[in-house]
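tool_call: predict_structure(chain=1)
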Amino acid sequence: MSNNELLRTEKIGKLLFKFSLPAIVGMLVNALYNVVDRMYIGWLGPLAMTGIGLSLPIMTLLMGLSMLVGIGSGSRISIRLGQNRKDDAEHILGNAVVLLILIMAGAMILGLTFKTPLLYLFGASEATIGFADEYLTVILIGAIFQGLGFGLTGVMRSEGSPKNAMYTMLIGAITNIVLDPVFIFAFHLGIRGAAIATIISQFVTTCLVLYHFRYGKSNLKLHRKNFKLDKNIIISILSIGMSPFFMQVAASIVTVVSNNALKANGGDIAIGAMTVINAIAIFFLMPIFGLNQGTQPIVGYNYGAKQFDRVKKALKLAIIAGTCFSTTGFLMTQFLTVPLIKIFNSDPELIAVATKGMRIFLVMLPVIGFQIISANYFQAVGKAPKAIFLSLLRQVIVLIPLLIILPQIYSLDGVWYAGPVADFSASLVTGIFLFNEMRHLDEPQV
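tool_result:
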């Protein structure tokens, strides 16, 4: 049975498991190598960890550009396959490859040109600028590999190859995990070595993805004729990809605002503590992102095929699973706080700051699974304006004002309080949007 037939006829529970498990495993491994990366860097000292935190806004922006094209094209491809328009799907794929190369090359040039003033804007001090600059320079040089590797892995899932996408991510992640200690310690390259290991792993991922679409057993193939950019295709990709892109841009802005609030109220150590908190949080959120990636082709295909009962069932099961993941993360971050922090650094001051911060900042984790899955639904069915609004709601409309206002009242605690207030508010509004959407699902507007 072909992947298209499976998407149309297979039981939703079984289908969700088949598509989501590889993505979840891949994302967990991706999270693991980020944890290992931060762990090794943490051994270089708390200020090295702060250097990573200062680099995060630009690294997040690079991820956002990858998602702009990767998720936008993946969503469109899923819908076109559901409409039995394979040639159109391959045209989208070809345009996506060229678009990723051009966008990431532009980001690399701009980033290398302005990185030093940007790092000071992000909260760097004379004690931390060296760590941040060393790491970020290498990451920017390899930006094209990140774009192609991450962006096209998502397309692999959308065109019906979730296992191959998982294996690709696994190989890239294992490469990074193996090379980290070699470059950091054996070659004595320190924080620059961690960045070099990351870029090499992204290069490996890119080679595997391009091989899959050119020579592998892909449902879609890369053809030179489809590399010619088409204005309508570009607009269709960007209109959907804008939602996750704006979410990443928002995350980048939040990091800048947060870093400056942390520096003003807690110094360099507070920035390092937030870097640890984010590294731990992302490990528990990655399975939800993987679940999203597995759900998207199911929802997108069946929405395009007008099988709305299957769309509803897939969404319901995904929300239940996502809530289970986020609740597990909540329990671990509340009751295993110190052991989790010590994985990254054993500095007593950093542990004290991060312990209090994590318990407050992540207290609303149980509702995040619902919010992420529900916002992704609107993206999967091509309703870009709603998807963009819900993506920006937590990280711009609510969180940024809170990060500015609350520290004025509560000092460093105000930074921690901002997280749960924003999480709860965004989840409540998303629930209202989703309830209204389900009532009118039989009247799609594409």
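agent: Residues 62 and 374 are 24 Å apart (CA to CA). Proceeding to next step.
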